[in-house]
Amino acid sequence: MSGRLYGLGIGPGDPELITLKALRLLRACPVLAFPAPESGDSLARSIVAPHLPGNQTEYAIRMPFSAERFPARAIYDEAAKDLGAHLEAGRDVAVLCEGDPFFYGSFIHLFDRLAARFPVEVVPGVSSLTAGAAALGQPLASRNDVLTVIPAPLDDDAIAARLAQSEAAAIIKPGRHGPRIVALLTKLGLAGRARYVERATMQNQRILTLEQIDPQTMPYFAMILVHRTDGAPR
Amino acid sequence: MSGRLYGLGIGPGDPELITLKALRLLRACPVLAFPAPESGDSLARSIVAPHLPGNQTEYAIRMPFSAERFPARAIYDEAAKDLGAHLEAGRDVAVLCEGDPFFYGSFIHLFDRLAARFPVEVVPGVSSLTAGAAALGQPLASRNDVLTVIPAPLDDDAIAARLAQSEAAAIIKPGRHGPRIVALLTKLGLAGRARYVERATMQNQRILTLEQIDPQTMPYFAMILVHRTDGAPR
To answer: What pTM, to 2 d.p., does this model score?
Structure first.
């Protein structure tokens, strides 16, 4: 009998924001896999490090920071082959996923490659989206607001069109797109309605105004919330 | 010194999908508040019931099922007054929130009324949005997909405009709007791309095709995911 592939949402960064279910499976699976940079420590592994029993096989999926689509595909092909061998041998594999596995998670690449051959269970986690709103002390969306999640790599016209149609928007994954996004929000007259948080719930979380941030050094794990509604009494 | 108001995200329904942090605060606060129907049991309280120590003051915020805006306001005003008295007396108050407090949560009504007077901390939780995608075994959004969350009470034209602009959309809170939403998706030719889950992660979770569901009895805690992309290899 083959093993089961788990996509474990481990939450946004605070080790206390893992669920009981993810914690149970994290400790029970003989094989742990996690994303990692080309060299150095894995953020996902560091989030759960306090919980690890210490007797598991660990597998780092190492991704060059600037990987373009084709090298990334080859890396996921290789990881799927290696993890597939564990599954074929009957060993359960838990893939650690920052936030939630199915919310823009790199787990989706493994899911696409392995779900047809092995049983898969996804354990949802607290996403950076709601963690960011909690950190900012600002509701993400309420009543009949439309909420739009916009990846920062999209071009300016696409982002502007989505912002125009949403009461609440979250621009995610800014990273190197930070300077362009800040310039766009300013041009659209939305800078005053934008709120910024990076690394929400992590020890180095920062909340800044758009004027305070240095867009040149905006991390990937950051979010800009833009509310068009005025927060009238509800 | 006044008490602290906690908005505790307790997750989508499975009691094991609560976070360690919410569990700790849930057990530590002397006062628990939770939404409840006009008569009968609170869903939020039932989710955490296995974890309760049994020595807390409990406060049910009872809302008639069909409350219109003005009765609802009066009910939240009253709850804010009563919970504010606990906070003034120095007692911490934990408000139980299905899913995440700031993701379309009724907690926002209390936050609006109390945040200016008392310290507030929001503990993010696993939302029904990602729990629904996990239950369906279908990624919510990946790579540079735009994700739109659309409340079902919006009118057909507004919903159609948002669906046209999104690679991935989640229509939430269908309830009595179910028949209209199913008719709209069919008219737009999107029925084949829509997937439906109700009460995700609860014991009575159901996954159905649009043809299988009876839209007349669609619950409030249900979601329709609509993906316009074809799921090409990533």
So the answer is: 0.95
